[in-house]
Amino acid sequence: MTESKHDIESREDIVIMVNTFYERVRQDELIGPVFESRINDNWAPHLATMHDFWYTLLFGKEAYRGNPFAKHIGLPIQGEHFQQWLRLFNTTLDELFEGSRKELAKKKAASIAEVFQAKLNGRLIGGK
């Protein structure tokens, strides 16, 4: 019998979500190389930061402080990269969890992608 899914309920669930997602990112032909070019062999610190980031977003606990957008400036990313990032993120969530916090994570991710794209486009248009 297969284990039933549950909602994202703990930091441990965040760790599973983030680690599973980024394992898929690293294997993805479109966005994997973009992440590898920026992160290189520093995946452990990146994953720890992402655990804190998503824990803060989904549980309202202040574990993350920083400017996530700043890390993305200068990356060769466009709309299709954000679409693939969201596709992988949502697939990971759907396979692992069910419930309202999972849906909140999807909404937060979509909002992040939208804001980052707008800022990157604005920066390119306004800065040149």
Automatic annotation (TrEMBL):
Q: Look up keyword Metal-binding and say if it applies.
A: yes
- List the InterPro entries: Globin-like_sf, Globin/Proto, Hemoglobin_trunc
Give me the segments passing through the membrane: none
One Pfam entry name = Bac_globin
| UniProt keywords, alphabetically | Heme, Iron, Metal-binding, Transport
Question: What's the superkingdom here?
Answer: Bacteria
* Protein name stated in the entry: Group III truncated hemoglobin
Q: What is the lineage of its organism?
A: Bacteria, Pseudomonadati, Bacteroidota, Chitinophagia, Chitinophagales
